[in-house]
Amino acid sequence: MMTNLTFPTSPAIARWAGIPLRLIVGYGFFAHGLAKLEKGPDNFVRIVEAIGTPMPHLMAWLTILVEIVGGLSVLAGAFVALWSIPMIAVLLVAMLTVHIQFGFTSIKLIAVTADGPKFGPPGTETDLLYIACIAALILLGPGPFSIDRWITARKAVKA
Q1: Radius of gyration for the chain, computed over Cα atoms and rounded to the nearest angstrom
Q2: How much is the pLDDT for 37?
Q3: Which end of the chain is more exposed for a tag (fewer CB within 10 A), N or C?
Q4: What is the pTM of this model?
Q5: What count of other Cβ atoms lies within 10 Å of the Cβ of residue 132?
Q6: Region for residue 141 given its phi and psi (left: phi exceeds 0; alpha: psi -120 to 50; beta: otherwise)
Q7: Per residue in 63-115, pLDDT tens?
Q8: How many helices (H) and strands (E) does the chain have?
């Protein structure tokens, strides 16, 4: 006899769905932006220039800004819908200019050596997962403990 393995869903439970999405998307963007700063922004400018992006200095710094500020904003649940536009733009550019040539899979095991596993370049999978998470955040809302929710509640009290 099979048991029903579905989880209970209700508006009370569903309202929490935005929190794990915010945490992974926000932290992921922030970590990538911070890594670009730590490795030296000029290194990222060279990468952006090598893929043929116009105005490479400006676009590299805009990308870093979107990743750091957008990531922190999503973590806090602040202006999520607004930040989703430049965040998805960054993902689409990365996907279409860098990752698409490597196919879909984000993890490609090339070899296992004495030093550990060696992986190839990532495909589009992670970009698409981030885009799906951002779309879900827009549809679900950022959830409790978010600045967006706090702003909405304050507006409702004033009305």
Answers
A1: 19
A2: 96
A3: N
A4: 0.87
A5: 12
A6: left
A7: 999 999 999 999 999 999 999 999 999 999 999 999 999 999 999 999 999 99
A8: 8, 2
